[in-house]
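Internal tracking record. Fields below are filled automatically when a chain is submitted to the structure queue. Please do not edit lines marked as system-generated. If the sequence contains nonstandard residues, flag them in the REMARKS field before resubmitting.
Queue: standard
Priority: normal
Entity type: single polypeptide chain
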Amino acid sequence: MRDSLALRKLDTRDRGIDPDRVVIRPEPFRQRTEASPPGSGGLQVTLTGAAKAFGERPVLDTLDLNVPAGQCLAVVGRSGGGKTTLMRLIAGLDRPSRGDVSIAGNRVEGLQRDVRLLFQDARLLPWQRVLGNVGIARIPGWRAAAEAALTDVGLADRAHDWPAVLSGGQRQRVALARALVSRPGVLLLDEPFGALDALTRIEMHRLLERIWEAHRFTTILITHDVAEAVALADRVVVLREGRIAFDAPVSLPRPRREAADPAAVALQARILDEV
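SYSTEM-GENERATED OUTPUT FOLLOWS
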């Protein structure tokens, strides 16, 4: 695995110095070590008896789910099975009708600062250049952080381009950089690669896997693609009619090339039987 590099810049605004003229130097991103166990970059997500209904229509039915810190969980199911609703509950965009959702032991009661979302549509602002899109929050030191995130996704040389000149895969890389720039504890992915061609999707799989291995943020991937779930996840859950119909670990060595691995193909078949 290639080491990621971050660019660190001193925040000198309060001292009357132009931050764009401060020399920046590369610094390795936080890596896992023997003293830093897997999951140290992520936060635990727990749903206890969580249910959600819209009017008289139930979508999630008394869901109990624990996602350990640093785990990559894939949630698979048919349309209307409750996958996106589950993601919205974790993000704090919706509240459960019954039960609780918590992150790192704290009850979710609104938008979460440690949670970021990545959608199928990159949703970039066309009037902002790539760097501005990644650093959209404009927190102190945002420029250096955005440059670091672009380096992480392999787009450091496109920082000053407009989104319109990027390919679909490049735009999704920018969206991923924007989600990761604040080093979230939980990353929620809602069919993020569904609109990409097959080769670009494989490239994005490898990119996400590399970054996740480096930082171990808790990842919850919503997908219809069973092969994608097996390729990326530590664990696969199948949601069917708002309930967990299947929950199993993916005990396959990384990196995974599912098309050539009989064990991966067999696991995909098991999952498909439950969808």
